[in-house]
Specification:
Elements lengths: L19 E6 L4 E4 L1 H7 L3 H4 L14 H12 L4 E8 L5 E13 L2 E10 L3 H15 L12 H19 L4 H31 L7 H7 L4 H157 L4 H137 L1
Antiparallel strand pairs: 1-2, 1-5, 3-4, 4-5
Helix pairs in contact: 5-6, 6-8, 7-8, 8-9
Length: 517
């Protein structure tokens, strides 16, 4: 048995209309409790939930009382008793407890306890009884003799005395005997009536310890009183639970009504936002269509640019070949011009040689003329020939000078042509490099444009898919708007239902209040 300590001598009380309610599982662990129980126990609700119910057990409570309680509860029967409980700080409070098993599909799953404020005479009686039991003096079975039994014994004794006295004073004896016999009959009839009532209430709670706690009677009358009290307690428990449920329903109805109003406002707000989203989706659908058109145009332009780049690459390749041929031709021209220049040089050299020969011939002709003049008449013919040779030498010399001048000029021009050919070859080489670079760039442009075209195609597909998604979203938004309209209508109906439920809860509460009167 759990021993909660320390304890004080301070008693706490609560009002007659207050009910302490708690629900445990089948192991006695608290699962639910009301605020009244929390308040008087001194514990926080979080300190009670999940704890054994004997957390409030007082050391003054005898073990026998709880043994009887568990015997009844595990048998599926209710139990009633006066219990002294301990507060968190050690104070105590008395309760008139009525505990019933909670069953689901015939199986016990927990226990429910409804406790009310006991009468003071019952508390005093229970205090004395529990002290006696704890001291080892108490008995769970009463040995007291009922008043009916005492009266019956006395009546029989009187009849025996009358019989022993004889028939003296017969009239008085007969009268007395008649009275005694009638009293005996009344007593027997009363006991029979009590037995019949007890039999009728055989399903009600009955326990000797409870009899001694709740009444000063014993025997059948005491059991009958306890049975009636237990039935009243059972009825009170039912009424209390109905009242509690009605109050809970009323609170939940109020909360539900407030929630419904808020939900309705939220739905209306959602409808407005949904309409805004629908408008935005329509605009987005239009924008997506415009983007799709631009993407399609971009893809077309990219294809055109790709084709132009491809053609440019081809032209660059052709130009590359042409410039390469031009380079080769220029190189050949340069080579030819160099050959001409070399031949011209040789001609110049030959002209110089001829000029030298002409000079020598002229000199020889001059010498021959001089010698002919010396020879006189005999040398005249030789002088004529020498003069002609001299003239020929002078003309040759003159022609040679002209040839030399022309050859010199030709050599200069050939040299310039060679330089120009070399420059042309270099320009052709540079142009060839530029054409190669242009071809590479055009190839890169073609590849980039091709990638752009592919990306545009993918973008077009993605935009088209987004257009379908946007259209689906638009349909869903329309559906949501329709559902919101239906939800608004449903919330209105739900609000009416909750209002009606709240009215029923109020009527049920009023009915319980009237029934308790």
């Amino acid at each position: 048995m759990r021993n909660n300590a320390p304890v004080t001598a301070v008693e706490r009380t609560f009002g007659q209309a207050t009910k302490l309610i708690s629900v445990t599982n089948k192991d006695g662990t608290i699962e639910q409790c009301n605020d009244a129980f929390v308040e008087i126990s001194g514990f926080k609700k979080t300190e009670l939930i999940g704890q054994p119910h004997n957390i409030v057990r007082h050391p003054d409570m005898p073990t026998e009382a709880f043994k009887v309680m568990w015997a009844h509860l595990k048998a599926g029967k209710p139990w009633m008793g006066l219990v002294k409980n301990r507060c968190k700080n050690g104070d105590y409070y008395w309760v008139d407890a009525y505990v019933t098993p909670v069953t689901v599909h015939g199986e016990i799953v927990g226990y429910e306890s409804v406790r009310s404020c006991p009468a003071r005479q019952d508390v005093e009686r229970a205090t004395s009884l529990y002290q006696s039991i704890n001291a080892g003096k108490g008995q769970t079975t009463s040995l007291a003799v009922s008043a009916e039994n005492i009266f019956l014994i006395v009546s029989i004794a009187v009849c025996f005395v009358i019989f022993m006295l004889g028939f003296k004073q017969l009239s008085e004896g007969v009268l007395l005997a008649t009275v005694v016999i009638f009293a005996i009959w009344v007593s027997l009839n009363r006991q029979k009536t009590l037995a019949t009532l007890n039999k009728m209430l055989s399903h009600a709670f009955s326990d000797e310890l409870a009899v001694r706690s709740y009444t000063d009677e014993s025997g059948a009358l005491g059991k009958l009183q306890v049975a009636i009290l237990s039935q009243l307690a059972h009825l009170g428990t039912v009424i209390t639970r109905i009242e509690s449920a009605a109050l809970t329903v009323a609170k939940q109805s109020e909360a539900g009504a407030a929630l419904t109003v808020q939900t309705r406002k939220d739905i209306e707000s959602q409808q407005a936002e949904t309409m805004q989203v629908a408008t935005a989706m329509n605009e987005m659908t239009t924008t997506i269509a415009e983007v799709a058109r631009h993407v399609s145009d971009t893809a077309t332009n990219a294809d055109t640019a790709n084709e132009l780049a491809r053609r440019g690459t081809n032209v660059a390749n052709v130009t590359h070949g042409s410039i390469q041929q031009l380079k080769n031709t220029v190189l050949k021209i340069g080579s030819s011009v160099r050959g001409v220049s070399e031949q011209t040089t040789k001609i110049a050299e030959a002209a110089q040689m001829i000029e030298q020969i002409a000079d020598q011939t002229n000199l020889l002709a001059l010498n021959a003329a001089i010698e002919a003049a010396r020879a006189g008449e005999q040398g005249r013919g030789f002088a004529v020939v020498a003069e002609e040779v001299r003239n020929l030498a002078r003309r040759t010399q003159q022609s040679t000078k002209e040839i030399y001048t022309i050859v010199t000029e030709l050599t200069g021009r050939a040299s310039e042509a060679v330089d120009i050919a070399d420059a042309g070859a270099k320009d052709a080489e540079d142009g060839l490099l530029h054409v190669v670079e242009s071809g590479t760039m055009l190839s890169g442009i073609s590849e980039a444009v091709n990638q752009i075209a592919q990306m545009s195609t993918h973008m077009a597909s993605a935009v088209e898919e987004q257009a379908h998604v946007a259209e689906d979203i638009n349909k869903q938004i329309v559906s949501i708007s329709t559902l919101a309209d239906a939800s608004t209508e449903s919330s209105v109906k739900l609000s009416d239902t909750i209002t009606y439920l709240n009215k029923i809860a109020d009527e049920l509460h009023e009915l319980v209040v009237r029934f308790k009167r």
